[in-house]
Amino acid sequence: MRLLGQLALLGLLLAAPIFSYADSRISAYALMSPSNQAMQNDMNLNPAMFWIMDGEALWADRNNPSNKACVDCHRDAKQSMKGVSATFPKRVQGKLLNLEGQINQCRTTRQQLPTLAYESKPLLALSTLIAYQSRGLAIAASRDSALEPDLQKGKLLYFQRMGQLNLSCAQCHDERAGLKLAGSVIPQAHPTGYPIYRLEWQNVGSLQRRLRNCMSGVRAEQYAYGSLELSQIELYLMQRANGMRIESPAVRP
Amino acid sequence: MSRSSRAVITLPKTAKRGEVFEIRAIVQHEMESGFRHTEQGVRVARDIIREFVCTYNGKEVFRSELHPGIGSNPLFIFYAKAEQSGSLEFKWTGDDNYLTIVKQTITVL
Asked: How far apart are the CA of B30 and the nearest CA of chain A, in angstroms?
């Protein structure tokens, strides 16, 4: 009988997915005040709407050496970009790219334009426009086996202590999620809403800005914008949040 | 030459005479306070909206002065009483020749 029980337990363990948070995962949306939630839900109140509108203008902008706008290849973003942000980061021509990296790759190869700087208005406008098309869809992290080394590295970085405070991501966002850091509840760190309009920033910001923000918080040297390490952490976080609903552009306090 | 920016107005297309309706007006603006410095220590010049006025068929229904402590992309939610069909004008004025004017119509039944 006991052996049978052990076998059943073993079976359960084997059947469990690698990320077995399924039931306890919550978006930081649930931690916000009703007024902030309303600001996120109602696109007439969500300030990120302005970035979407700017993004729509850029989508049709042919002012580049190739005389090609995004719309010329991708047509209507509302159709073609549906679900796209849900699958990044992924490997494109052997290189790990997040959404911002993919936008810049398109710009340099198709439009012969220089790359846009991270957190610059035009890049945030385009990434917000694209991410908005996946609002309400589930995160569908890439299952590409070629991503395995990046995924493992991202996981390693997530559990690695860093900085003068010697803290890892996991120590706050896994072990202490739901407890408080100063006055704020520590979220589980699921990247469901990026790019986000953060009230503290008074601006839209990317997931990498948020990651760098945490790194400076633990007094660690920040990985550079667009670095492989940040994309690997992004990849791990997206796998960890696989199946959760995308809220982009989310509002956060 | 004045500077302008995007604004989004939310109000009902129609209202009954005497009905009080909600108006939401959000405008894209950085509201740079003038108290911040760059990493090089240079002070960033103040650049804020100074005033927001809403008129309904030429009659002022809402006015607000804005100050450096107000956050970016300011949102106003206020109410007006439906009297006659016509237009509402929303006007934001600010530093450095900033001027944004948006007009919306409403039909009073």
From this structure: 8
pLDDT in tens, A21-57: 446 899 999 999 999 999 999 999 999 999 999 999 9
ipTM: 0.89
Taking the Cβ of residue A44 and every Cβ of chain B, the question of whether any pair is shorter than 8 Å is answered with yes
Pair of tokens at residue B64: 């607000």
Q: Which pair of tokens denotes residue B108?
A: 């009073």
Q: Residue A118: exposed, middle, or buried by beta-carbon count in 10 A (0-12, 13-18, 19+)? A: buried
Long-range contacts of A86-90 (CB under 8 A, 24+ apart): A86/A134, A86/A137, A86/A138, A86/A139, A86/A140, A86/A246, A87/A140, A87/A141, A87/A142, A88/A142, A88/A234, A88/A238, A89/A142, A89/A150, A89/A231, A89/A234, A89/A235, A89/A238, A90/A142, A90/A144, A90/A147
Q: pTM to 2 decimals?
A: 0.88
Q: How far is A199 from chain B (nearest CA, A)?
A: 8
Nearest residue on chain A to B7, alpha-carbon basis: A50
- Please name which of A195, A89, A82 lies closest in space to residue A142, comparing C-alpha atoms: A89
- Within 10 Å of residue A128's Cβ, how many Cβ atoms? 26
Q: How far apart are CA A216 and CA B18, in angstroms?
A: 55
Q: Is B68 on the interface with A (CB under 8 A)?
A: no
How far is residue A32 from each of residues A39, A187, A188, A244, B107, measured CA to CA in Å?
Answer: 11, 10, 13, 17, 37
Amino acid symbol at A103: I
Cβ-contact A13, A211 below 8 angstroms? no
pLDDT tens readout for residues A194-247: 999 999 999 999 999 999 999 999 999 999 999 999 999 999 999 999 999 999
Q: B35: which chain A residues are within 8 Å (Cβ-Cβ)? A: none
B24 to A44: CB separation less than 8 angstroms, yes or no: yes
